Amino acid sequence: MRDPGNHDTWERSAPLWGVHVLMLLASVLVASSFTVGAAITHGLPPEILTLVRFLLATFFFTPLVVWRYGLVLPGGRQLAGYCAISACIVGFFWCMFEALRYTSALNTSVIFTLVPGISGIYSAVWLGERLGRQRLLALILGVPGALWVIFRGDLERLFALDINRGDLLFLAGCFLMAAYPPMVKRLHRNESMVVMTYWVLVTGVGWLLLLAAPGLAAVEWWKVEPRVWAGILYLAIFTTIVTFYVTQLAIPHLGPTRVTAYSYFYPAFVLLFDWGLGHGLPKPVILPGVMVVLLASVVLQSGAGTIDSGRLARHSRLPAKAGEEDF
Fold it and tell me: Does residue 256 contact residue 127 with C-beta atoms inside 8 Å?
């Protein structure tokens, strides 16, 4: 295995402003996945669609990993950690594609605004993260702000939101996705994020093979539309490889809660996509919601929430430091 030291120095010393820029880019890509997912979800069963997505991502990522690090199987404990992380991601994506068969991209983007708050609770329980009153208030206020943006300041649109089985299924997936950032923080053992991303993808393929195996033989691959393949390719490269890597790179620098707080930007980006597709600019009435979301994000990103270093050290090979502030 090659020495990754020289390759990974920039990962450990990346400037915070650069990490924030990368997370903003990742937010744009993730927001686009709702629209793309809704457009292709009827092309293949959810578990098979996600399997193809992960297989393609792994295929494209393997040469980079082999070239820079060599292909070495992780130890048992480390591999189990990757399996736990990928189980959360696979569960979320399956819930997402299955839910989009019964609900809309708009509904799912509304529900996804709950993820930062849920992730904050996980981080408090698993990592001992103490958000403080200001950040807790920002998490709470971010939800209505995002809702105001999504529904363009129209309360009738909000109250007309139908809750269906797809919404409930996606909510279950959000509980899984919210666990992803704190699990990365807790299970990361100072390996390169390229390596961690790769093995999360590989173990994700394993989970998906178990899910998809019964239905693979019944798929009529020649009938899958070209736009479905194009959508899967986009999701595999941009909203899988790129966003997985950027998110896992950002978590050690920013912490789980600050990373998931970027999901508050998704509604605004969705509106921009709508505008780009010719649906018109949003009305000025949404500006209060935009300001609330931006304020919530700024509060969450400013400063660092404290973490109970002793608790994290008991579950990690990393030593605890007195007064450490990782978040």
Answer: yes
